[in-house]
TrEMBL record:
GO terms for molecular function: acyltransferase activity, transferring groups other than amino-acyl groups. Coiled coil: none annotated. It comes from Actinoplanes nipponensis. The keyword Transferase applies. This is N-acetyltransferase domain-containing protein. Pfam families: Acetyltransf_1 (PF00583). Residues 117-239 form the N-acetyltransferase domain.
Amino acid sequence: MAGPADSAGPATGPAAPAQPTATPTGVTFCGLVDPQARGRGLGSHLLRWALSHHQPVTVETESLTRAAEDLFAAHGLRQVFAEDVMRIDLARGVPDAPWPAGAQLASWSAVSAGRFHRVYAAAFRDRPGFPGWTADRWIADVSEDDDFRPQWSVLAGLPGLGDAGFVTAALDWIVQVGVVPAARGRGLGAALVVEALRRMRADGATHAWLDVNVDNPAVRLYRRLGFEHRGRRARYRPS
């Protein structure tokens, strides 16, 4: 949950909030309930406390359940974001996905990073919530992650279009996949994901994860490639 800082809070015990952590936009804290104490309304008590002591509040969950949905709805919260977490078993092999004719590949490097950013911007500019980051900021966000794997991150160009799609990857994760509008419908996104998975498996990875916004049609592609749903993350705010 996130909201402006407040030092007061209920005492520790079977249900308690973690110590709030200051952020540029307020504080972030987490409500915890001992598994043996669940079903007693303690989660509802914590949520009421958060909503009454911290405004505005954003409630975040890393594993959305029906019970949590009902709890949030009962407290007047509406979902403002949700993404599915998916996993694929690489021990069984990597699916097939042919490249469009004439595709040319480049791995992430200091030289190619700017090209990745240009494709990222073209691919996601029209998506809700697009941050519009500069190349320097986006490249730093991608490459300064300790788990980032440049050798698994691929840029693809197509005849007549130039750079047309990309995938970035980190340890056990497909981080981001994007295809420019003019290149969609040719199987490029699938080929990029499969190429990253192939490189991951060649380096010893046994599985890979990804997350995808629930309103992103790419979820159908990931299911077709063999990714399985493992959970849902979500954010809620007061109605």
